[in-house]
Amino acid sequence: MKSYRGLFHVLVALVLLCGITVAQQTASELRREAFEIAWSRVKERHFDPKLNGVDWDAVRLRYAPRVAATTNDVEFHRLLNEMLGELKQSHFAVFPPSAYAGEESNGKSARAETGMEVQMVEGRPTITRVEPSSPAAEAGLRPGFIVASVGEESLDVLQRQIAARGEDVAKQHSLLLRAIRSRLRGEIDSTVVVRYLNEDGAARETTLKRRLPEGLSIKFGELPVYRGQVESRRLANGVGYLRFNLFMLPLLEPIREAVKSFRDAPGVILDLRGAPGGEIAVTTAVAGLFHTRNTTLGTTRLRQGELRRLVLPNAEAYTGPLVILVDEGTGSAAETFAVAMQENGRAKIVGKPTAGGALPSVIEKLPTGARLQYAIGEYHTPKGVALEGRGIQPDTPVEITRRALLEGRDQVLEKAITIIR
Questions:
Q1: What integer pLDDT is reported at residue 12 of this predicted model?
Q2: Which residues of 290-307 are buried (b: 16+ CB within 10 A; e: fewer)?
Q3: Torsions phi, psi of 356, nearest 5?
Q4: Over the Cα atoms of the chain, what is R_g?
């Protein structure tokens, strides 16, 4: 009887061991398949047949053994992003499954936030905006406070790591701010420890409980859910102020209504600071709110052919002075919109230079559950200039100071108002 019992235990152990081995093999096979898809999509669909001068076949030879050696998906997805980084272009990235944590199947929820925005001010990551009634506001955080760390990660260390990549300053700042934003976000009701320097330079620490921000949940393709926000009001002397964070279809109607309400304004300010992009079709629709004649927002050059971004005239368009505010966080579709309005002579640009991340892209799901983003076109301004890697040079550059933030001033907005006056 004992021998049978012993044999039974041995068989159970073998079954369990085989199950673990099969699971490991399955995960490994999924990673290998995802690697092949990512590599081949770039090889076959990159808008530039020369792949920005990168020997993509040699890249595959270097990364394939490293992919085979990965033991988990987190490590694997980081490696894929490292491989895509060899191109040194925007819109080539992998979004790990964790970027979609908390989303419902119908796309009605999104990752939670702390309610503060961080920009580079005088060389340090500094809070520039705190949403009212947000976790950050309730914790007493204010514009002008310097952020030292998020969680256990020192931002000074992160800044040095990004600087070591050798990118230009605007691109370094853009990458750093994107990394900070990602670390501040998380699942609903999760917490994050933020260490900072207050107005007196004293080191402080607070724990923020993340929650959903105000706004509309917007799901577009395979992108993570975003929260769309539109803010409009009248400033001093009736100047119209419109701030929105996404060029997405659900926000088009409130944007249109806001511009319509500014019909008698002596000038309008569009605040696109921190706007990461959106849909190309929405940029042309918004541009139509400010044009009474046919024009273009530039072209998208594909591997074969090109697409012109035509703007249809609007008889009721606002034709008064227009100023657009930008910074390193203004990217993609928002960036192409702003530079086209500048080149067409329709708007003046005020703020900080943008990073030049303007490649139209598509996103597809990988076997590991991650999403692959890859560029399929190159954006050229109405004057034929490739924006990628160049960015927008404002007509009126403004370097904001920590003192002004602590005083509750918005120097970029102040300058825009002065220009309109």
A1: 46
A2: bbeeebbbbbbbeeeeee
A3: 80, 50
A4: 24
The H-assigned helical ranges of 100-141 are 135-138
Instruction: Sort strands 216-218 and 124-130 into parallel, antiparallel or unpaired.
Output: unpaired
Q: What are phi and psi of 159, to 5 degrees?
A: -65, -40
* Tokens describing residue 323: 């100023």
The predicted structure's pLDDT at residue 236: 84
Report the residue count for the chain: 421
The per-residue pLDDT for 16 is 46
Place of tokens 């419902």: 104
Cα gap 362→405, rounded to integer Å: 38
Nearest to 344 by CA among 287, 273, 303, 306: 287
Are the C-beta atoms of residues 17 and 10 closer than 8 Å to each other? no
Give the largest Cα separation in the chain, rounded: 97
The per-residue b/e assignment along 29-66, b for 16 or more CB within 10 angstroms, e otherwise, is ebbbebbebbbebbeeebbeeebbebebeebbeebeee
- What is the identity of the amino acid at 339? V
Rounded to whole angstroms, how far apart are CA atoms 322 and 240?
9
Return the residue matching tokens 């597809």: 364
Q: What is the mean pLDDT of each run of 10 residues along the chain (421 residues)?
A: 49 47 69 95 94 96 95 93 92 84 52 89 94 94 96 89 79 83 87 96 95 83 82 94 96 96 97 94 96 94 92 91 95 96 97 92 92 94 94 96 96 96 86
**The tokens of 195 are what?**
């260490």
Beta strands at 322-326 and 396-397: parallel, antiparallel or unpaired: unpaired
- Report in angstroms the alpha-carbon separations of 372 from 40, 60, 97, 99, 140: 12, 17, 11, 12, 38
Q: Helix, strand or coil for residue 366?
A: coil
Torsion of CA 158, 273, 390, 385, to 10 degrees: 160
CA dihedral for 131, 136, 140, 145, sign (positive or negative):
negative
Helix axes 280-288, 332-343, angle to 10 degrees: 40
E strands, 341-395, are 348-351, 361-365, 371-375, 377-380
Name residue 324's beta-bridge partners.
270, 349
**Contacts by 397-404 with C-beta closer than 8 Å and gap 24+?**
397/351, 397/352, 397/353, 398/350, 398/351, 398/352, 399/352, 400/119, 400/121, 400/128, 400/352, 401/121, 401/122, 402/121, 402/122, 402/124, 402/126, 402/144, 402/146, 403/144
Q: How many CA atoms lie within 13 A of 226 on its CB side?
A: 20
Q: Which residues is 396 bridged to in the sheet? A: 350
